[in-house]
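Morning, I've got a small favour to ask if you have a moment. The fold is given in discrete form, as structure tokens running alongside the sequence. I'd be grateful if you could look everything over and explain what you see. No rush at all, and the record is pasted right below.
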Amino acid sequence: MKNKILVNDMLVLEKHVDKYGALHTRKSFTDYAHKNFKTDESEYLIRSFNMPLKEMLKVINDYDASKVKPDEIKLISDLAKKYDVTKEDVIKRIQDVRRVKPLIYTEEEHLTKERKLYLENWLSKNMKSIEDINKNFKMKIEKDYLLRAYQLPYKSILSFLVGTNIPNYELIEQIANLYNVNLNDVRLRINDVLDVSEYIRLSIPTNENAGKYHKLVRNNIPDIIKNNGEEPIVRTLNEEEYWHYLCTKVTEELREVEEAETRDEAKKELADLYEVLLAMIKAKDLTMSEIEEVATLKRTKNGGFDKRIFLEKVISKNKQNNN
């Protein structure tokens, strides 16, 4: 059957997995994809989650570069075993990656968060009409960003996102219908807004969502809220939910560690990350001594990271001999 998904849409779905995949286990991501996306999109997302793009790109590039082609049937069988999927899924995934590969290697310069923030500020202060975009900007990636931002205003999109970590299909469809744009433009714009909101630190809650957090918090936070004269609404998570939100939390803390600029900021953010890791260790019924024991064994065998060694590629001795 011919693939119903356009190649540009495939790239958007790949980025969606890259952004939200770390928040899920295999089972929870499968449930999430089936619940929030159309059938062909959900199947694509699940294949992308199970067989990561970077790993599959390496497999395909190595295969294409090899002078003596490996046995395709064995390669597919090995990949199916490695990723615990069917051979049919492996074949489909290879087809997926081959289709989207040209876009990955020809994609224009990536916009940094700082540049996105600049564009948001320019839009709010200087833009009077769409023509102003072409007059002031040359790069297509910046023009596309500004056009999305113009069609889907920052504050409006942020108001839809209050109280949710992962926007579902119904929400995306609602926004697309409201602003008369396509679904992928909405997905891209949501990613834009989530990126710059970390800098703007702005929250525009609607009446319905005012005060909602929907996040895992430290044990004493409810008491602190009460002492401030407010009433916290809480519930105890089950094991599956708890692990999911711990994974969400560790991703959040990693991002804050990355953004820390001073030694004191790094110390505070690393302490937060450490606290989440302690909770994850306990949630898996492990102890710190067990983790330290395994870490010591791995460090003894493979070393640590303090030498800052960055592996770029490995040249096969067989390939050298063939040359």
Observations:
- The CA atoms of residues 117 and 196 lie 6 Å apart.
